[in-house]
Specification:
Chain lengths: ~200, ~400
């Protein structure tokens, strides 16, 4: 019959219309600024720099190797190496970035910097509400703005951060065992030398 | 008492006219009749846009606009401010004068159509004795405005949109007018006031609206389909066709000119709805004899809102037609149906009053509808094209 399909469709839309007033489960829209969905763990927006401990300058993991700067496809990272050295996460004296800028208006959130960083110093943030009325200065993030604590990293990406922390703990333990072994060897050598040196006396 | 409420606008106008000197009375009378229309219908347009967006949202299980003001009801104000403050861009190669005149002409033509619509008892701007003719004559000015817009923009998309619009509007003008002829045949008059007055009687509690006859019902349905096409609304919105020719004839319009097009389109929709009400739904007459104490203008606007809801509902339901489907519907279904409907109306007029003419006329409407529908729905067999060199 001509027009029966139209009537069927109109019944369907009427059901949708009335149903949206009765059952709230039909309306899947999240009223964003007031309501928020929990962020999924894989969420990522722009990179940030991780630091350990309380002081962002002391605990900065970045050793200014500049690999990320070279790899960055849109070239949004700018690093200036420091002249002096400071101890890194492993306690080894390392360079640190005197200047570390990311222009997030250029950044394309590709995560390549995170992939290439051998020190787990740069990671992806989840903060996306970054709009500003200063389109140049307000979107050029400096070292201080980029630095976020390891606790924050653990909060936004628990699995990933846990793996990084475990890796660090392992490395640290290995280092400790190595130094301990070295110390023992040294001590043993010293003791041997003492013994050897003592005999002829 | 109810008579005073019913005639309050008419009495108010005469009361105001009493204070004016005799020499300016005709002019003042015209102004006092026209200004309320110029205020009421754009206001109705503003309310309709927000309700339409909310309704379409609900049909698609969304909220629709709900940010500006309580439940988003101030959205039209925000839209108005936005379109007023937007930059008005005119293409460099456009015909500037025509480009400016097109939206103005569209709105003007849409407003002119209201002159003959009786919006209540004794509430019509002019009672022309060729009112229906005037309405359709003015309605065809819209086509000119649309083509002016499409041509003057100097854009291929707008020209394509305008060509589509002209093809569609002229095709549907024919069934639109033919569908309304049945009423003119029955009423024996082209005056809208006379046509409404013929429908104000009651049998028991039931009104004498023309829609409650077989030919009137068929005419009403045909008229509404053609009116949807005339006002370029979904599912006949090919001239706009956002997904294919971006916005059709008003692609090069921005700011308030675009808003004027929008206004003109809705005013056209209200005007044709008003004409459908006048011709088929008894104008300002109450739907039941015991409801006549409610003022006549209330009934006119209630019917107008009801038809607008129907338009919105259809828009939320149906996808856009293809060009050949559009033309097939107009020429292969609507035109024969409208012509046969005229025959039905004649049969109705000359047969004796009673059940027999109901039976005969119902068959005369339903049978061709089914047969034509079957013919249209038949699967077309396309022959397989053989290529001589490609294969």
């Amino acid at each position: 019959m001509l027009g029966s399909g139209i009537l069927k469709g109109m019944v369907e839309t009427a059901r949708n219309f009335l149903g949206s007033y009765i059952g709230k489960d039909r309306l899947t829209t999240v009223q964003f600024p007031e309501e928020r969905l929990p962020q999924i763990e894989a969420a990522r927006s722009f990179p940030f720099l991780v630091y350990d401990g309380a002081d962002w300058q002391q605990g900065m993991r970045c050793v200014s190797c500049q690999i990320c700067e070279k790899e960055c496809p849109p070239k949004c990272i700018f690093i200036e190496k420091s002249k002096d050295k400071k101890p890194d996460a492993m306690g080894k004296p390392q360079f640190y970035p005197a200047v570390f800028d990311i222009d997030i208006s250029v950044c394309m959130s590709c995560q390549i910097c995170v992939e290439v960083c051998p020190f787990d110093a740069i990671k992806m943030d989840v903060d996306f509400e970054l709009s500003t009325d200063d389109r140049f200065g307000g979107l050029l993030f400096d070292k201080q703005r980029l630095s976020k604590s390891n606790e924050y990293y653990n909060a936004i990406h628990p699995t990933e951060a846990g793996a990084v922390d475990a890796h660090f703990a392992e490395e640290r333990a290995k280092l400790e065992a190595k130094t301990k072994a070295a110390l023992h060897a040294k001590l043993a050598l010293a003791a041997e030398a003492q013994v050897a040196g003592g005999e002829p006396r | 008492m109810s008579g005073v409420v019913d005639q309050i606008f008419v009495l108010g106008k005469h009361w105001l006219l009493g204070y004016a000197p005799v020499s300016v009375r005709p002019l003042l009378s015209a102004v006092l009749s026209v200004v309320p229309v110029l205020v009421a219908f754009p206001l109705l347009f503003a309310i309709t846009t927000v309700l339409e967006r909310k309704g379409l949202g609900r049909i698609q299980n969304r909220y629709g606009p709900n940010r500006t003001g309580p439940f988003g009801f101030f959205q039209p104000i925000a839209d108005g401010v936005k379109s007023l403050t937007k930059e008005d861009i005119v293409p460099d190669t456009a015909d500037h004068v025509v480009h400016l005149l097109a939206p103005l002409l569209l709105v003007l033509a849409s407003f002119l159509a209201y002159a003959v619509l009786p919006m209540g008892r004794n509430m019509v701007i002019v009672n022309l004795n060729a009112g229906v003719l005037f309405f359709f004559a003015v309605g065809s000015l819209v086509e000119l405005a649309v083509f002016m817009a499409g041509w003057s923009s100097r854009s291929k998309y707008s020209l394509l949109g305008a060509m589509r619009a002209i093809a569609q509007m002229i095709s549907y003008e024919v069934p639109l007018v033919l569908a309304s002829i049945v009423v003119i045949m029955e009423a024996g008059s082209l005056s809208t006031v006379t046509i409404v007055n013929m429908q104000t009687g009651y049998t028991g509690i039931w009104p004498h609206w023309f829609v409650f006859t077989p030919w009137g019902f068929a005419g009403f349905v045909l008229f509404m389909i053609a009116a949807t096409a005339e006002s370029n609304r979904s599912p006949f919105d090919l001239p706009e066709g956002e997904s294919e020719i971006i916005a059709g004839y008003y692609i090069e319009y921005s700011g308030f000119k675009f808003a004027l097009f929008f206004l003109g389109e809705y005013l056209g929709m209200f005007a044709t709805s008003g004409m459908a009400i006048t011709l088929f739904l008894g104008g300002w007459a109450a739907p039941f004899s015991f409801l006549t104490w409610i003022p006549s203008y209330f009934w006119f606007f209630a019917k107008l809102v009801a038809l607008s809801v129907g338009f919105i509902w259809i828009r939320g339901t149906l996808p856009r037609l293809r060009m050949d489907q559009l033309m097939n519907l107009a020429w292969k279904f609507m035109l024969p149906m409208a012509l046969l409907n005229m025959l039905t109306a004649g049969t109705w007029h000359f047969m004796p009053v009673g059940l027999s003419r109901w039976l005969v006329c119902t068959v005369m409407v339903v049978a061709p509808c089914i047969l034509l529908g079957r013919g249209l729905a038949r699967k077309k067999r396309f022959q397989v094209r053989r290529y001589q060199f490609v294969e």
